[in-house]
Amino acid sequence: MDNKFAYKTDTAWCPGCGNFGLRNIVLSALQELDTDKENLVFVSGIGQAAKMPQYLDVNYFNGLHGRALPAAGGIKAANPNTTVIVESGDGDMYGEGGNHFIHAIRRNPDITVIVHDNMVYGLTKGQAAPTTQRGMITPIQTSGVFEEPINPLALAISLDATFVARGSVGEPDLTKEIIKKAIQHKGFSIVDVFQACVTFNKLNTHKWFKENTCLIDESHNTADRAEAFRQSLRSSPWPLGVFYTNHNKPVFEDQLSPYKGGDKTALFRRERSEGVLQELLDQHMA
Question: Most buried of 46, 65, 138, 197, CB within 10 angstroms?
Fold first, then answer.
């Protein structure tokens, strides 16, 4: 069966890039959820991962480096009936976009964030990213990376993100199911996905990710925040699966005055009312 979200076009990814596998996973997840195409919006910043929406047959907004989350939150606030998915690389999301990542988690908009985590900056030729492992030699860090890599899952759980998970292109079925759950979750969902950069990261290869990951135990209770945090600190092997869920945190757009009465009609479909849009923008930027 043809996938209604597939868009055939030339790509700028290198042969063997993990982005191809993740694109197939996302396409399968959307198809199996029978997502409403008209009300689906992808948002991205800058980078190889951020090109993903351009290779899908979807509505999308491609913005500035590290600035996908403000745009995604604004789109969801303007029309809470949309399914909003952010595609971003580990550098775009955790580096340039790190501050937005923190505060988007605090606001808890109902959006899904898929991070292509290849532990390197791929678009700009291989310098260390926030998730690059210590000791890796790059064209810029010629003596090896000495900084401790960021732990995005531990950070997200510490801020009480309402859905926190990790997938891997090497585990396509598992990752597809995780992404489906993330999209269906009401609140901020972060899915960090391991995928190899075959050109600029010769350390964290497809084989390396396969050999250095494991599945989180089936008995894991995702409502146990302390245990989820403990699991997020594990490495070598890194666990894959859903770490943490919280279904009781208020969702950002539900707290906005235009929607508090239960009317979720998009702003552009309402009669124009002076000050409503400005009030909404003020709340979003607070």
Answer: 197
Residue 121 pairs in a beta bridge with none
Pairwise CA distance, residues 73 & 97, whole Å:
14
d(CA 116, CA 209): 13
Sign of CA dihedral 115, 118, 122, 124: positive
Show the CA angle centred on residue 271, arms to residues 266 and 275, nearest 5°: 85
pLDDT classification of 132: cutoffs 50, 70, 90: confident
- Using the predicted structure, report yes or no on whether residue 199 has a pLDDT greater than 50: yes
Model confidence at 274, in pLDDT bands (50, 70, 90)? very low
Residue 118: CB atoms within 10 A of its CB come to: 29
Q: Which helix (H) or strand (E) holds 172?
A: helix 172-184
Domain chopping of the chain, boundaries: 18-285
Q: For residues 200 and 204, what is the distance between their CA atoms, to the nearest angstrom?
A: 10
The packing angle between helices 172-184 and 18-33, to 10°, is 50
What's the whole-model pTM score? 0.92
- How do residues 98-124 score in pLDDT, each as one tens digit? 899 999 999 999 999 999 999 998 877
